[in-house]
Specification:
alpha+beta, six-stranded antiparallel barrel, 19% helix, 137 residues, 3 helices
């Protein structure tokens, strides 16, 4: 039993070493588009009662990602599509951190403090709004 416990402890301490590190990146926004998305499951399924529908806007942004890490820029020359719950300024440039498919971007607030906003990598190429339209079946 002691051998099992020590093996488990050694494995748990080695896991952070095996994990991919967070990568510092520079983000430049080229184009942004928003799309309203229903937030409740009945509306998503095509229910006809639209009076009680609540919507959430999802923003899709075509960005260029630059980094000192060659793996990042090698993915389609850093031209990626990201999505999140808030828009970024077109032609704006931001510093961020890439962690797998998650991108954390620092945005300066009105008071000058940096606010972190979360985005997901949708694709390693730029996309059009029509790529995200839902078509009736």
């Amino acid at each position: 039993m002691k051998v099992f416990a020590w093996s488990l402890l050694a494995l748990m301490t080695a896991l952070p070493v095996c994990a991919k590190p967070k990568i510092s990146v520079h983000v430049k926004v080229h184009e942004g588009m928003g799309r309203d998305q229903a937030t409740d499951s009945l509306t998503k399924s095509g229910a006809s009662n639209v009076s009680n529908v609540t919507y959430n806007t999802i923003f899709y942004l075509n960005v260029s990602i630059a980094s000192d890490n060659p793996e990042v820029a090698a993915k389609n020359n850093g031209q990626w599509c990201i999505s999140g719950g808030s828009a970024l300024d077109v032609n704006g440039e931001y510093d961020g951190t890439l962690d797998g498919n998650n991108l954390e971007v620092g945005v300066a607030g009105k008071n000058g403090k940096i606010k972190k906003q979360q985005y997901q990598i949708i694709d390693h190429k730029w996309r059009k709004l029509s790529d995200f339209e839902q078509h009736p079946r």
